[in-house]
Fold U3 small nucleolar RNA-associated protein 25 homolog.
Amino acid sequence: MGKRRAGRELLRSLSKKQKKHLREFGEEHPFYDNCYCCCCLHLCFSFQSEDSDKSSADSDSESEVEQVSGYHKLLATLKTSPESESEEEEDESESEEAEESEAEVDSEGSQEAGEGEGGEEDKNDVPEEEEATDPAEQMLSQEQADGTDTPCDPHHGAIEEFTDVKHESEFSLETNFMEEESGDCNADRQDSNPFKQHMDKELEEKEIEKMSTLPKTSSQSQWPRLGQLIFSSTLEKHKTLKADKEVDVKQLHLHKPLESTWPKVNKQFLSAVDKPTDSSFTPLQRELFCIMNSYRDLFYPERNALTNGEEIRHSYCLHALNHVLKANAQVLSNNAKRRDRKPGTDTDDHRDQGLTRPKVLMIVPFRECALRIVHILISLLEVNDKKKIDVSNKKRFKGEFGSDPEEKPPNLKRPEDYEAVFAGNIDDHFRIGVAILQKSMRLYAPFYSSDIIIASPLGIRTVIGAEGEKKRDFDFLSSIEMLIIDQADIYLMQNWEHVLHLMKHINLLPLDSHGVDFSRVRMLNLNNWCKYYRQTLLFSALQDPQINSVFNKHCFNYAGQVAVRNVPLTGSISHVVVQLPHVFRRLEADSVTSVIDARFQFFIDKVLPEYRDAIMSHTLVYVPSYFDYVRLRNYFKKEDLNFTHICEYTKKAAVCRARRFFLKGEKQFLLFTERFHFYKRYTIKGIRNLIFYELPTYSHFYSEICNMLKATDSGVDATWTCTVLYSKYDAQKLAAVVGIDRTAQMLQSKKNVHLFVTGEN
C-alpha cells in the first residue's frame, strides 16, 4: 500500500505535459510508443538531417534491444494503480475539453473530437478505423487456441524487436530434405517450368553490356481487360505475349498444393463475375498472372482499393508463394541428391541458391496489408480443413498486426475509398520475415532465415540505415528475386525517399558471407547479375512521374517489362457537381527542375495580386507539395498577408482554429496541403475562391475540393472561382482531371483555358 500511495503522490505532482508524456511514452512496445516518432522519422529522412548517428540508434534492427531509463521504468509501474489510471483519464478529458472549445460551431466539429488527442503533428495520425472483418482477422482469431507461442499485446509488448530463433533448425534449408509425399521431387526436371526457364538461363557478358548501355525497344498490344500494354526489352529476342482467353491451372506449372487450393481461395471473386469463362481466375487476374508467370516486370497503375485491390493482392501472393515453394523444393531435392551421392564424387550441378536466403520482398503501406497477405499465404498452403499447416508465432502476429474495434472513433463519415485504404491497423512502421518449408510457416523469422520479407518503406528504411551509421544492414537484399511494391501511390503521401533508398540498396553484393555454402550459389549471384534476373511487380492507383521513374530506371529484368498505359477519356472534372468556372493558367518552364521556381514566380507575380483585394476573401490555396507549402507560408508571412494554414503536421487545436477563422472570414487565405486532405478528408467550409497551386496527385481530389463549395450555403454562387496552374510537364495529371482530348488541346495552345462545369458534364 505504501508503494501505491507513493505512486499516487508522485503522479499528482506531475504536470499535465508530464502526464501526457506518461500516457504516450509509458508503453513498452517500440511500434506503439507514439505515432509522432514515425512522423519524425519520415521528416528526418526527407530532409537528410545531420543527426544520422542518433537516428541509427533509434532504428530498431533485428537484434537491437532498446535501453529503458529508470524514469520510464518508474512511470511504467505507476500505470498499475487504478487511482492513477482514473486521474489520467480525468486529465485526458480536460485536455480534450480544452481542444473542443476551439472547435468550430458546425456539426463536423463534434465529430473531430473523436479522432484522437490533439497536439500531435503527425501526418500518420489518421482517424483509426473499424476493425477489419475480413477472413484474416477471423482466421487468426480461431487459430489462437491452437498456438503455443506467447501473445504480444501491441500496447504492452516487449521492448526488443521479436525474432523467432526457436524454430531455426526446423526451417533450415540446409538440414532438411524433400518429403516423398509432397510430389515435387522431380520439380527441377520440368523444362517447361517458367521458374526454371527464367532462373536457369545463363546470360553472357555481351548481353549484360547490351542491357546496361543500349536503350530498350518497345511494342504495343491491346488486351481485352488490361487495355493498352507497352512491352519493352533490350535483348533482340523479344516476344510479345498474347492474352489467354481461358487458363487451365494445370498448365501454369503451379506447385502441387496450389493447384487445388487456389480455386478455393479465389472463389469469392469468381462469384462476382457475371459469366466466368475461367473456373480459377477473374479476367483481370488471368491477364495479370499471365504476365507475372512469364517473369517479366509489370507496372499496373489502375489499382483501386474499392474494386480490384484484393484481386490483385491474391494474384501476386499466388505468384510469390509459387516462386518460393519451387525454389525451396529445388534446394531440398538437391539436398537429398547430395546426401545419397557416393563418397569422393564432386559435382557442380547443384547451384540452386543465392548469397542470402530471402527471395521475395513485399512492400506494403500498412500493417493491415501485411495481415491480409499472411492470411492469403496460409490459405494457399492449407489443402483442406483437416490438414492445417503449422504457423509459428501466430498469436503474437495477431496482437501486433490486428486492430482493436474500440479504437474506432465515433460518428465519422468519410468517402468509401478512404474507408477502404485506412481499414484495420494503419501503422506504417513494421517489417516481418516469413519462412516457408513444405507444410509449415514461420512468422517473425530472422531476415537471413526468411523466404519472404513483408515491410513498409519506413520499416525497411530504418534497417538499411544511411551512410555513416554504425548499425545498418542491407545484405539480406542481395539475392531478392522478386520485388513487389503494392499501393505505390500511398508512398507518395508518406515519404518517397524511402522507396528510392530501397532501390539503391537492393541486389548489391553482401559485405559478409553469412555462412553461405558457395558451392550451392548460382553463378548469376556470384557475378553480381541478380538485378538482371529480378522480377519487379509495381501496383499503383495512378500514373506519376516518380513512380514511372522507378519502373524505368531501376528495373533491369532481362525478360523485359510490361506497362499498362491507358489514357483517361473524361477526367475527374466531370464529377464536379457545383456550377463553377475553371480557369487553367499555363506557366512556362525550361526543364522539370526549373518548373518549381517558375511556378512560384508565376504565382506571386500573376495570380496572387488578383486575390489580394478584400473582395476576394475566402480563398483556399491547395498545395500538393509540402516543400511548396513551406515556401508559400514563409512568403505570406514576409508579405504580412492575412492568412492561416493547415498541413499534415498541424496540431488538431490549430486546425480547428484555422477552419473557424476561415469560415468566418477573419482570415482571407487558407494554405491547405494535399497530404492533410489525404489523411483527414475534412470538409473545409467557407470556400469561395479556389487556387490549385499544382494539379492534385489523385485526380478525384480535384472534384472533392471543388465540391466543398456546396458546403457554403450562402447564395453567392456567381462569385465562385477556380484557378489551376499547370505546365507542359503536368500532362499526366492534367489528363486525369480534364481528359485526354482537352489535354492535347491545352498543351498545344499557350493561352489560358476557361472551362465551365454545370454539374451535368
About this structure: The CA atoms of residues 125 and 595 lie 32 Å apart. Residues 27-37, 49-159, 181-189 have pLDDT under 50 and may be disordered. The longest strand covers residues 217-223. The chain has 29 helices and 18 strands.
